[in-house]
Structure formats: C-alpha cells, structure tokens
Design a protein that fits this description.
heterodimer, A: mainly alpha, 9 helices, elongated, B: 84 residues, mainly alpha, 5 helices
C-alpha cells in the first residue's frame, strides 16, 4: 500500500521501525548508485548512504513537504556525497551531470555508416545492426553480460539507467533526485542505453564467429 | 524527389531515446516515423534498443546487506531513543 509522504514522516517520527526498514531497503540501490557519481569507491558510497540516513533522521523535523520525501532524501544524499568527495580530494567535473552533452559520444560507431561525402546515401548504415537471438536475450549469461556493461558505464550514466530502467522511476523523479534537467537526463539515458545495446550486439557477434 | 529534410540513419540512431521519451518535436517525430517506415536497419535498431531496455529491467538491484540493514536499524533505534 502506498503511503503519503506525510504518513511516512509521521510514522518515522513516531519511531516506527518497520517504516524505516521499508524505506531503507527500497531506496538502498538508488542511493548507492547516485552516491557513486560523486565518490570514488563503492565502499565509500555505502558510508555516504549510511551517513545520509543519519542526516535524514536528524533533519526530519524540518521536512516541510515542499518537495517529495524521496527528492528531499536524495538532495541530502548528494550534499553528503559532495562533502565526502571533497574530503577525499576528488573533484567532480561540473560537466558530469550538468552538461553531459558537451562532449559528443556516438550511439553507434561512425564507421558503421557510409561517409558524409557518399554520393547516394551519406550516413546510411554500411554495417547494419546484427541480429540478436531473441530466444537467448533473457538467458542468465546474457543478463550477466548486461550487468557488466552497466558496471562499465561512467557513474552518471550508470545512475540514470539504473534509476530509469532497473528501478522504473519516471524521468521527473530522476531529474529531481539528481537535480538535472530533462534534456541532460535524456542525454545520459541515451548514452547508457546505446552502450548497453552495443555490448549486447558485440557479445552475440563474438559468439557467432 | 530527395527529401532534403530526411534524417540519415546516423542521425536517427541519436534520436531514438528522444523518440521513446516522447521528446521529439512534431516535425522531427514525423521525419523519424517516415524514416523508420522505410528503413529495415533502423527499425531493427529501434527494436534492439527496446529489447535492451526490457532486459535491463530484469536485472536485480543491489540488495542491502543484512549487516548494513542491522546497523541502520540501530541508528534508527538510537535516534528514536534520543528523540523521546
């Protein structure tokens, strides 16, 4: 049963351990992924999540419901992670979240297309997408491969694809949690999804050789 | 007649996410759909991206370890006790 933010906050203030447990479990993976955008290791990200919950509880009386509880918790996480990153001497490039489109990245390698000066069909597929064997897409090796491809993504792209496609959040929820624009959210999502597709295509191509 | 406005395949693949997100302008949406209607390779690419999304959706998110959960519950118990 979905409870409103006001009900959740009230339950937490009343010391309801079950409510706390449910939230901590439900938001653990997203919090961890977002923390990893800022801090260098998973172990530190785990600590940041822990510290975030401490801060959330400490600030709970000041939660006014101007944003959703989820957004509020993720803002606290981002602040906690940024502070921690500074202490670790890590500089987060501004562009990593706020201007991801500045450095272009191709969804598909340019050499898979006919060159721009091709007389008939510039930019048409020279080497079209190779077939994916439908019956094997949900096999456990395939999913292991996909998980590895997600792990290889830059942390900002990884966070967005995890929130959107694994956790099933809406784009608005992701934009709020990460404090980014819709456009930047789509840039990060596009890069993440297209790289994972490339990995899938490569995986089956190598196998069929 | 060559439609000078038509997307090339290389341009189209960069718009697939905007298409799936409903973020294309009406003009771009029309050009996207016209291209897809005539291009098997791009239709396949769009299909593969949808399949990718579907498989990614079956991945299990990281679970909270029991130790970490126990620690957090202790934190909560401490906070509750302090707040009384």
């Amino acid at each position: 049963m979905e409870r409103s933010d006001a009900q959740l906050v009230e339950a937490l203030r009343a010391g309801d351990e079950e409510t706390f447990r449910v939230l901590v479990r439900e938001w653990h993976a997203p919090l961890l992924r977002v923390a990893q955008i800022f801090v260098p290791s998973r172990a530190i990200a785990e600590e940041v999540v822990q510290e975030t919950w401490l801060r959330v509880l400490g600030a709970l009386d000041r939660f006014e419901g101007r944003s959703s509880l989820k957004t509020w918790v993720f803002r606290i996480l981002a602040n906690t992670a940024k502070t921690r990153a500074q202490r670790e001497g890590r500089v987060i490039p501004f562009s990593s979240l706020q201007d991801p489109g500045r450095v272009p990245e191709a969804a598909v390698d340019a050499d898979r297309f006919l060159p721009d000066d091709h007389p008939q069909q510039p930019g048409a597929w020279a080497s079209p997408p190779r077939d994916l064997p439908e019956e094997r897409l949900l096999a456990s090796e395939t999913r292991t491969r996909i998980a590895a491809a997600i792990d290889d993504l830059p942390a900002n792209q990884r966070a967005v694809i995890m929130l959107r496609d694994v956790q099933g959040w809406s784009s608005t929820e992701v934009c709020n949690a990460l404090d980014i624009t819709e456009v930047n959210q789509r840039v990060l999502l596009h890069r993440a999804r297209t790289k994972v597709r490339n990995a899938l295509e490569d995986y089956f191509a190598v196998e069929n050789e | 007649m060559i439609d000078i406005e038509a997307f090339s395949c290389q341009e189209l693949v960069e718009l697939v996410t905007d298409f799936l997100e409903g973020a294309l302008s009406p003009g771009d949406l029309r050009r996207f759909e016209e291209h897809i209607a005539l291009c098997d390779a791009c239709t396949e690419y769009l299909h593969q991206l949808r399949e990718t999304i579907r498989i990614v959706g079956t991945i299990t998110p990281d679970d909270l370890s029991l130790e970490a959960e126990a620690e957090l519950l202790q934190v909560f118990a401490g906070w509750t006790a302090g707040a009384r």
